[in-house]
Amino acid sequence: MYSGERKSIAYVLGLYLSSTLLLIITLFAGYYFYEQDQLMHDEKEILKSYAAKVEEKLSLLHEENGEKLQYPRFENFKSAIYDIDNNLLFSTLDEDIKNLGDNFFTKNSKSYLISPLSPYYMGAAYIVVQKETKDIDILSDLIYIAVIVVFITIITSFFLVNLVLKPIRENIKLLDNFIKDTTHELNTPITAILTNIETIDSSNCDEKTLRKLERIKIASMSISNLYEDLVYLLLNHKTSLQNIDLDLSQIVLQRVEYFVNMANMKKIEFILDIKEDVHFTADRQKMERLIDNILSNAIKYTNKSTKIRITLDEAHLSIEDEGRGMSKEELEKIFTRYIRFDKSQGGFGIGYSIVKSITQEYQMKIDIDSKPNIGTKVTLSW
User: Fold this and answer.
1) Contacts of 107 (CB under 8 A, 6+ apart)
2) Which of 86, 275, 322, 366 has an alpha carbon 20 to 30 Å from 10's alpha carbon atom?
3) At residue 281, does pLDDT exceed 90?
4) What does the DSSP 8-state code read for residue 133?
């Protein structure tokens, strides 16, 4: 799976799951508050029936009108009566009610209903009834349902993402096959061109012909370098690994020599500060790919009649040009495969992607310092 695919799946899953979770939370919150309102309505109806029982008992006491009257008591609720001036006459409540303006309210896990009384039995104008409030015990069920819904959503989202990415994967596969076939066909003519150029006796050629041959050689080298990058890329960086002790100083000098003709075409001068006998354990081909990509980019994107400074010591390799440079936004995307900031220079935009993979493989640190219209400095540390 490509890193781009992983990012696409992550973005789609994030968007899909966040929107689904938002919908679930909205629905569950609405359901929770609906249940709460329904519970309050049921509580109120129960308290009304309790108030009717108290009123019935008070009516019987009022008719008896005996010397000893006992205020009615009930097992499942408590009550109190107040006169027209809100003075307490009698109460079995847990606390005194100061404000009789609210018809129904809850306080300290208890529900209260204030009901007017007419006629005024026993001098009472208001009945207050109290009961324990029933808890809403649906939160755990909602959480359980939410977990199931989220799990199902994750499964379906993976299915949908794969369904959406299927045609993209097929197109990428076709493109990869095309590049593989093209790369395979390029090898023979490139080798033939470079071999034949080397065998030409330049002493028998005039200056004009020599310039043409030089251009052909440089163009062939560019194609050859691109071919090596494509081979490395198409093999998914799984080329045979032969880590040996390398004389990095000699390799850098050889790669500079390889690009001299290309640099001369733009009148670019190499300024070398290369310490001798710098050694590094790695695969030679991969180190050449690493250096070649940084050097070719420096030549490609630098201005004519400028300098490229190459510095090597025991722990660092830096290549600095005086080219177009890159903006902060471009630097953030520099290692993304197939990204090209200057399409006039050609290429596939795979150079720095390869550089990144090799530096990660050998645990190198890569720093790129670049400023537009000033230049770029690439530093490798190990």
Assistant:
1) none
2) 366
3) yes
4) P
